[in-house]
Amino acid sequence: MVNENTDTFCFMELVDSQTYRETVERCRSISATAGWTAAIDWAHGWLADTQGKSAADVLRALERTPMDASLIRCLEALCARGVEVSVVSDSNSLFIAQVLHAHGVRVPARMSSALAAASKIALMDPAKEPGAGCASVARVATNVAWVEGAAADGGPGVPRIRLSPHDPRPVGCPRCPANLCKGRALHAVLGTAAGAGAAAPASPAPSRVVYVGDGSNDLCPGMCLRECDVLLARKGYRLAEKLAADPASVRCSVRLWEDGSELAALLLECAVAPAA
Asked: Which amino acids does the record list as binding Mg(2+) (predicted)?
């Protein structure tokens, strides 16, 4: 939905280029043993303790995350057609809520309330709620984020962002990082059963699912899709490379896209085309 890595975009906005590069390298080093979510959690503590950058600074920086205008119009058109839009992301709940709010996209009520509470703790004006009739996201599956610090516990220091994994216990998926299995998350978003011994579906599966991705961990949900579904993979990225190397790994149709305007056109095309 945005052409930036929200995990690192805020650091790029808040520190100089050399410090940014060193921070990302340190995150990669931590990630090798503890995982990326733990690495970013460390980075926000470092940002507060050594750079004096608070959670409010981070949230304001996230407001500047660019989002393709054609995708925002596409989301509005999809919502007007009654298409349910959901997000499965390895970012985190606070960042996703802040970026979408900044672009006038409504998020689930629980995320909106959490963002308002985080803004209060971070000592900044709460995000304004987008108006009725705008684009909206119905469900979000991602890592958990919140604000803790001086305003939260009465102690000294700078309020900072904290993170914890979506999956507290690794689910053992060979295709996904321990913090989030996107295939399992997709089943949860859709209300369908996932794997042997899973609970019965909470609701009938939608007539068609259109999944958008670009990374290696987007292959797992792609493998969950049916023949009638569509996987939109970004050209030149790891998902497209994996699909090219093993086309039989998915049952669904695969379409490639390169930029936001091309993706928006494909999403609208899928919305109006009858399900196979």
From this structure: 214
Could you give the CA distance from residue 9 to residue 11 in angstroms, rounded to a whole number? 5
2 pLDDT band, cuts 50/70/90, is confident
Strands (E), 158-225: 160-164, 210-213
Angle at 124 between CA 123 and CA 128, to 5 degrees: 140
Looking at domain 181-191+207-276, does it have CATH number 3.40.50?
A: yes
Residues 121-132 have pLDDT tens digits of 887 876 667 765
What span, in angstroms and rounded, lies between the C-alpha atoms of 125 and 72? 24
Q: Is 65 exposed, middle or buried (0-12, 13-18, 19+ CB in 10 A)?
A: buried
Q: What is the pLDDT of residues 183-214, one digit of tens each?
A: 999 999 888 644 433 444 445 677 899 999 99
Question: Annotated binding residue at 218?
Answer: no
Say if CB 93 and CB 141 are below 8 A apart: no
Distance CA 265, CA 74 (A): 8
Instruction: Assign 112 to helix, strand or coil.
Output: helix
Task: Give the domain ranges of the chain.
Answer: 1-166, 181-191+207-276
Strands of the chain, DSSP E: 86-92, 139-148, 160-164, 210-213, 230-234, 253-257
